[in-house]
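Q: Convert this sequence to structure tokens.
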Amino acid sequence: MIVPMASSEPKSNFAGLRVLSLESRRGPEMAKLIANYGGEAMVAASMREVPLESNTDALAFARKLFAGEFEMVIFLTGVGTRALARVAETLYPLEEYLAELRKIGVVARGPKPLAVLRE
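A:
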């Protein structure tokens, strides 16, 4: 199959292309917007919120942190950083959780997780 080179002129729509939207909260709205511009929307949530009491992965993280199984933790979002602390608090006092984080390398990718960590 021969694929023509892309034109340097901007397109006014997606011209039937499949467009991926990693949207979790506004998925239907994004799908409609993509369709309005001639695209075939594929909407997949990039994140999901899980109630604290059933967040087994976050609880397992907290247990492994306290067992000394991490050398470094990377926080990507402020919301995730705060939620993880709330989950850890269901098992350990917040001050103890923070003390464990101080023992390892902590990286914040951007200002939002950094602001939460500074709180």
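Residues 108 and 114 are 5 Å apart (CA to CA).
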